Each structure stands twice: as structure tokens, then as C-alpha cells.
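Notes, p. 3: input format for complexes.
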Amino acid sequence: MPVCQWSQSQGPAVSGGCHSWGMTNESDRTVAVGVDWDAEAAGFDEEPDHGLRAPEVRLAWAERLRAWLPERPADVLDLGCGTGSLALLAAEQGHRVTGVDSSPAMLERARAKLAGRDAVFLTGDAAAPPVGERLFDVVLVRHVLWALPDPARVLRHWRGLLRPGGRFVLVEGVWGIVTPVGIPADRLTALLTPLAGHVRVEPLSAQTVLWGKEVSDERYAVVATV
Ligand SMILES: C[S@@+](CC[C@H](N)C(=O)[O-])C[C@H]1O[C@@H](n2cnc3c(N)ncnc32)[C@H](O)[C@@H]1O
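Output follows (226 residues plus S-adenosylmethionine):
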């Protein structure tokens, strides 16, 4: 079982969502191991596409989210929510957000960022979120699915958390050139096709403003309605 260790020069740096992650390749999947997300939390928002601090980057993500999320206020489940940057944009657009992350330090920042908003944050595993019998209109995930063991199984579980007419909004990619990691759009759409009535892929690599820099690797969003 080969193990690939990222270096900043090889791959996605931090804006790919996986700098310094240890990777274990197991034929059809790549699993990020050994990342101390609590240690990453303090500096996480310094990357343009993480903290969304630059107005033009923030606006670009807000516009994309507005296009991907329902027009009416919806229940959004943000899995692997990190510091809550996308959760905040969704809340600002009138949605009710439940964020789940396994890192208490990430969640501490998310709770502070969304203080006073219609949002709750839970500590737990994104693959099996601790939401009981609750159902949601949207499962929103950015830069997390690719690193979870057995994405096919995880997607089936998430499908069960969606109301009829609900949707997946998944922002993923393949980062790096020497030893690329991630999940290609065609693989993700193949996994979603049996679970969703309509699957739409939106390429994002050319949207420089989203990343705060030019990128040459594969970045995309999938909106899949069930
Ligand atoms: C690359 S960051 C993405 C954060 C956020 N989705 C964003 O786009 O800004 C990955 C996040 O997933 C969380 N995470 C990783 N594996 C997880 C798991 N199995 N369950 C819950 N959270 C997880 C990490 O703690 C971290 O906050």
C-alpha cells in the first residue's frame, strides 16, 4: 500500500484543502490520514478560498452558492464544515445551517463566525453525521468527500439524509501533478448517478477569483438533485 506525502511544491498547497496531508492510495480510493485538523485550524482561514476574506473572493463564492442552493430558505447540512466559511455564506442567504466537523478547534471558529445566526454545529464524523432522524434539503460538502474512506458508501448514507427533492452540493477536485490526489468529476458523477435524478457538473478551474490565484488542476462542483 503506497503512501504519498504531499509537499507544497507538488500539489494543491493549502487552497486545495489538503496541504501536508498524508495520503494512502488503495487502488480506487485515496484516503487522507494523519492530518491534525485542530492544529490546522488557527491558520486555515489565511488561504483566500478558505477564509474568503477578500471581497471579490467572498462575492464569487456567494454567487456560486446562491446558484447551487435552493431559492427558498432551506435546511443545509455542511459536512466537514471547517471554520464555517461556506456555512456563513449560506446563513447570510437565509438558510438554516447544521455544520458537522470532527475538529473541535475548527468548530470553535465556525461557532464564533456564525454567532447569532440560524446555525448549529456538531462534533462528529462527516461520514455518519450525528443528526439522528433529521432530514435536510441540502448536503453541502467542500473538499472533504475525496478524503473519506469509501466515498460510495458515504454518498449512499448522505442520500438517506436528504428530503425528497433535496440535493447534494459537492465541491471537489483533483490536486497536484506529480502525484495527484482527489476525486475526478467523472468518478463522482458515476457514484451519484444511481442516487440522484439529475446530476450537473460545473467546472471551476477557470474561475480564478474563487481560488484567489490561477489554478491548473481539476476543480469543480456537482449539484445532484434526488
Ligand atoms: C479541507 S477542510 C474543508 C473545510 C470546509 N469544508 C471548507 O471548505 O472550508 C477539511 C475539513 O474536514 C474536516 N474533516 C476531515 N475528516 C473529517 C471527518 N471524517 N468527519 C468530520 N470532519 C472531518 C476537518 O476537520 C476539516 O475541518
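Residues 136 and 162 are 5 Å apart (CA to CA).
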